[in-house]
Design goal:
The structure is a single chain. By secondary structure, the protein is mostly helical. The protein is built from six helices and no strands. The protein is elongated. The two termini are 28 Å apart.
């Protein structure tokens, strides 16, 4: 059977729900992986960031900033994963919206750090991710 918009509507699934599910799944994977990588490889991540920011105004702040970005990334991932299931089972969007907000915040922090470190290529790589998360935020708040 070809599942059209009418078929999906009969199941209580709208095109908006499909967008929300897609965005939340992608963002959950993105930020859970990134956050957990920092948790499980803390020393090597800290060494990387210490070197990365060694010639910037953030050079003495890595010990403070790393836990913050790690928590925000993990929050974005966990909230997006929970938001996926909230949309799937209830059609509600509160948790997913919070996940998208955390994702936008995390990417803004990362973008700031890349710009301060004068890693303009690294900053540019973050732009598509930010646009994806901003679109996800829009998809979660357009209902």
């Amino acid at each position: 059977m070809n599942c059209t918009t009418e078929c999906l509507a009969g199941l209580g699934v709208t095109p908006t729900h499909l967008l929300q599910l897609a965005f939340s799944a992608f963002v959950a994977i993105l930020f859970m992986q990134s956050g957990l990588d920092k948790v499980f490889n803390w020393k090597s991540e800290k060494d990387f960031y210490t070197q990365h920011f060694s010639k910037s105004i953030l050079k003495g702040s890595v010990f403070l900033l790393m836990p913050v970005i790690t928590l925000v990334e993990l929050s974005a991932g966990l909230l997006s994963a929970a938001g996926f299931f909230q949309v799937l089972f209830t059609g509600r969007t509160g948790i997913g919206t919070a996940g998208m907000l955390c994702a936008c915040a995390a990417l803004t922090m990362l973008f700031f750090g890349q710009r301060v470190a004068k890693d303009y290529k690294g900053a540019a790589v973050l732009v598509p991710y930010f646009l994806l998360c901003a679109a996800g935020l829009w998809a979660f708040t357009m209902v």
